[in-house]
Amino acid sequence: MSLETNSKAAGSSWTETAKIVIQALAIAMVVRVFFYQPFNIPSGSMKSTLLIGDYLFVSKLSYGYSRFSFPFSPNLFSGRIFGAEPERGDVAVFRLPQDESIDYIKRVVGLPGDTVQMIDGVLQINGEAVKLEYKDEFANVECDPYFRHCRRVVYKRFTETLPNGVSYSVLDLEPNGDYDNTDVFKVPEGHYFMMGDNRDNSSDSRASVGFVPFENLVGRAEIIFFSAAVDEPDGMRWVSPWTWPFDIRWTRFFNLVR
User: Fold this and answer.
1) Which of 12, 38, 82, 216 is surrounded by the most beta carbons within 10 Å?
2) Phi, psi of 166, deg, nearest 5
3) What is the rounded CA–CA span in Å between residue 76 and residue 66?
4) Is-catalytic flag, 202?
C-alpha cells in the first residue's frame, strides 16, 4: 500500500471519528434541551431528601415546555406547550418568581385553589392537618460557606403523608421555628405552593418565594446520578484531589427522588 493510500485512509478515519463525535454531541444537546437536564444541589433546604453535593436529572417532559425549559429562556411564547400539571408531593425545579435567572428546587404541597397553613410545625391543607409521624433522628455535619467552622447538627425526622398518599421525610430542628406558624395562604389559580423538606431552613412559599406560576416550572426531579460530601468538614476539596474518592457518596447513586 502506497504512502498516498495510507494518508487517504487516515484522513477518512479522522473524518468518520469527527462525524461520530458531532452526532453524539447533537444527541446530547437534544436530550439536554427537550428531555432531561442535570442540576446540582447547592443548599440544605431539601435535606434529608436531597443533600448538598447531589447531582440529579430533571425531567422536562413531566410538565411540558415553557420558555424556562430552554437555554437562555427565549421569550418566544407564553404559558406552556404540552402542559401537564404537577402532582402534590412532586419535587420540582422552578425559576424564582422574583428573579427568573435563579433555579430553585422544592416540593409541591399546595395546588391551585388550596389553602395552606403551618400550625405548630404541622402542615395544614384545606383546613385539615397533614399526617405527621416521628421517624428517627437525622445527624448531619454542617459548615459555613468557607468551611471555617463546622458542627454536628441533629434533627428530628418525621414522615409526612399528603392527602393523595405521597409520603416523604421532613426535618425539624427547632420546636418553634420561624415558619412553624403562619397565616393562611390561598393559592391562586395557575400557581403552586412550594416547601422545602428541611422545614426550619428553607426559603419557600411561606416566606420570600411566594406562589410559583405554572409557567416557571422547569421540570420534575427524577434520579440522583452522582453525589459528593461537599458540605462535610473532610469533604471534597478541589485543591486536595487525593480525597475525592472518599468524598463520593456511592450509596446515593441512582436513587429515585421521592
Assistant:
1) 216
2) -75, 125
3) 9
4) no
